[in-house]
Amino acid sequence: MRETVKRNGKSMTLIDLSDKLKNSTSEFEPSPHKIKYSAHKQAVRTTKKLLGLWKEYWLEGEGWAVEDVKLSTHSGTHIDAPYHYGSTMESGEPARTIDEVPLSWCYGDGVVLSMSHKQAGEAITIDDLQAELSRIDYKLKPFDIVLIRTDASKYFENKGYEFRHPGLIRSSTEWLVNHGVKMIGIDAWGLDRPFNILAKEALEGETQFWEAHLYGREKEYLQIEKLTNLDQLPKPYGFKVSAFPVNIEKASAGWARVVAIMED
């Protein structure tokens, strides 16, 4: 979704970077989700039973619509809190849950780093990040929100989506976080490389499984997973990102409506 609005003489463009959660996306999620829709006529039957109010008491015979949703906090576009990576930090301090993360980390200057040339399963290295920053002539600063574009989001509703992306490795994650970046997003199933690659390497003793995530135990940072429309941003920087998670007590993640905001 792209929307341009004018208010108080100023023009602003909003681009939705969040994928749409629906029943057809359940297969590849961490746990199956289900959206049950109750249409307006169901409400009429409910108020008849509980309050004695039948359809003649409703405008045009329609009551309210309601959806019952069962899903994981990691379903759809969501933000991972440090608690997702482990219960404690290496310092021994408890890891922050999603309701404890600073709101200031969730709004800031955005920069898109295109890694769409990388193949599924490949590592996104420090050299890759530096080359792209050089190409777009941008210097990272603290609290930038870095968005990694892989174009894997084009396969969001297809079987095997969770295996279609390149991903960050420990060293490249550390490099970004050491530049003061507190939020890293990706338009793919996860920030790390796909599980099939990670598991193979871990079993062969080559790498630490889930290495990019686990760096967050050493130095905390947030992740946005399952973004979309990064290819619709007209420029790689010069816009704000709003990515506030739903406030769920003691949770490892929270769903988010992530939006890029550009003032013309």
How would you characterize the overall build of this protein?
By secondary structure, the chain is of the alpha/beta class. Helices cover 17% and strands 25% of the residues. Strands 1-2-14-12-6-8-10-11-5-13 form a 10-stranded mixed sheet, with helices on one face. A two-stranded antiparallel sheet has the order 3-4. It starts with a strand and ends with a strand. The relative contact order is 0.21.
- Overall mean pLDDT: 96
Biggest pleated sheet: 10 strands, mixed
Give the tally of β-strands: 14
Approximate helicity band? 10-25%
Compute the number of helices.
5
H/E order of the elements? EEEHEEEEHEEHEHHEEEE
Low-confidence stretches: none
Report how far the terminal alpha carbons are from each other: 18 Å
Question: Hey, roughly how much beta strand do the residues contain?
Answer: 15-25%
- Measured on Cα atoms, how large is the radius of gyration? 21 Å
What's the assembly state of these chains?
single chain
Q: Structural class per helix/strand content?
A: alpha/beta
The spatial strand order of the largest sheet comes to 1-2-14-12-6-8-10-11-5-13
